[in-house]
Protein: MarR family transcriptional regulator
Organism: Rhizobium aouanii
Amino acid sequence: MVEDVVRTLGFLCMGSRLRRIGERLQADTQQVIDEAGLSIQAGQYPFIAAIDRAGPLTIGELAQAVGITQPGATRTIGQLLELGYVDMQPAPDDQRRRLVSLTDKGQDLVDHSKKVIWPRIAAAVADLCGDLDGPILEQLAAIEDGLAAVPLARRNAAKEER
Amino acid sequence: MVEDVVRTLGFLCMGSRLRRIGERLQADTQQVIDEAGLSIQAGQYPFIAAIDRAGPLTIGELAQAVGITQPGATRTIGQLLELGYVDMQPAPDDQRRRLVSLTDKGQDLVDHSKKVIWPRIAAAVADLCGDLDGPILEQLAAIEDGLAAVPLARRNAAKEER
DNA sequence: CCTTAATGTATAACATGTTATATAATAACC
DNA sequence: GGTTATTATATAACATGTTATACATTAAGG
């Protein structure tokens, strides 16, 4: 068994560590989504959630809202267009800006997600780390250990059983 | 100004959030490395640190030690071979396994890094989040705000001035 | 107004993670 | 001991982030 250097090195490898935990969390989240039979990627959810919250947004505003760069937003919106969840049209007053809005199918997805999927995911993550406290490195260790012990998809409202 | 949905949604977008903070932290770390004039990527450091700590390791052990998949480790080790920091040769007793070891150049890099760069990075990250406490979402918010206010590269032993 | 600068989006090239699978070497089992 | 299973690494194909840059449209200045 090999030592986990990223964990051992602590603050020095914090970037690598946060990335890999985030990737693991997103993969686990994807599993919950897939098991619910939905056709969407975990990373696409923040985009439709942003439009649901704020109304139609431009590519640039979406990039800001989700915290990635504009080309990344352009690509993800392209995928959501393909999937039929959003619609895009030039802003009437400024032909450079593209307003992205939810289609009926997209709104249905949001409505269903709000009712069924998002609460489940949020509850599972809260089960994983909602009660944690203390220095961040300790919390990260607890999260990694927790995910290794019980993956996110098995943390649905069955907290008491453990 | 658009709302940061990933932050707003809390536990629901924790995966995206950790990933993006990790990416930001690694980009900032890279800046520190570049400013020191070193030719290495932040993401490659854990590999040579692992070998420095444990001695020659196989590709599979390195993948484990760094917490990524084997193909990822194969690629990064390929880059470190190109850079001349590591050497690879089949294990004498098992020709399937490839033992990766530090070259003299690689050992020099580690020695110099231990003395100059790693303490600087660790100190900057500790300055950013070493004193934090409390629920993880609050700490993440503090980290994001902290990075926006003062990037990692400007957090070198000048903590008192702020 | 007409040129030039600024802004918003798209595209290209690259980085680095993943999964699935091919290939080579070793271990296991009649 | 020769076939079959397992193991270790390499490679292919893909996902999703980045930076740099091209292109179209609008704003600004003379």
The first strand of chain B starts at residue 57 and ends at 58. The first helix of chain B runs from residue 5 to 8.
